[in-house]
């Protein structure tokens, strides 16, 4: 059995899996190498009441480590993700209202 790395902190491990890039997905935290945002994984897990392993099965392009890192990121930066979820819902509602108002005219 391989020895566990001793030089990595939890933050180092998470930062290998989770990135924030200005101009990509509005700078939101996402799984490295993908366009899957942490907030989307959290929202999907909540909506479907999924465990981390079930969530990984729902997103086959992600490794289990990616999913666990995303959930760890959420735990460490809960207010950032919760605020992003609120903003995303508000943006969708405004967009839907603008579509409805255009359709009504």
What is the compact description of this entry?
This protein has helices at residues 10-17, 38-48, 52-58, 64-76, 78-104, and strands at 18-19, 30-31. With 105 residues, the protein is mostly helical. The chain is elongated, with a radius of gyration of 17 Å.
Structural class: mainly alpha
Oligomer: single chain
Summarize the helix and strand pattern as letters. HEEHHHH
CATH homologous superfamily - what is it?
Winged helix-like DNA-binding domain superfamily/Winged helix DNA-binding domain
Q: What is the number of E strands? A: 2
Give the CATH architecture: Orthogonal Bundle
What is CATH's topology name?
A: Arc Repressor Mutant, subunit A
Count of alpha/pi helices? 5
Question: Termini distance?
Answer: 68 Å
Query: Whole-number radius of gyration?
Result: 17 Å
CATH C-level name: Mainly Alpha
Principal-axes geometry comes out as: elongated
User: What fraction of the residues are assigned to beta strands by DSSP?
Assistant: under 5%
Low-confidence stretches: 1-6
**pLDDT average, as an integer?**
88
Describe the structure.
It is built from five helices and two strands. With 105 residues, the protein is mostly helical. The protein has a single domain, classed as Arc Repressor Mutant, subunit A, CATH 1.10.10.10. The chain has a two-stranded antiparallel sheet. The radius of gyration is 17 Å and the shape is elongated. It starts with 9 loop residues before the first helix and ends with a helix.
């Amino acid at each position: 059995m391989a020895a566990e790395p001793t030089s990595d902190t939890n933050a180092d491990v998470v930062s290998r899996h989770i990135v924030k890039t200005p101009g990509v997905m509005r700078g939101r935290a996402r799984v490295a190498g993908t366009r899957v945002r942490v907030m989307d994984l959290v929202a999907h897990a909540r909506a479907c009441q999924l465990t981390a392993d079930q969530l990984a099965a729902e997103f086959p392009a992600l490794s289990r480590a990616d999913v666990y890192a995303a959930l760890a990121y959420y735990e460490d930066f809960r207010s950032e993700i919760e605020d992003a979820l609120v903003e995303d819902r508000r943006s969708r509602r405004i967009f839907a209202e603008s579509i409805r108002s255009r359709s009504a005219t």
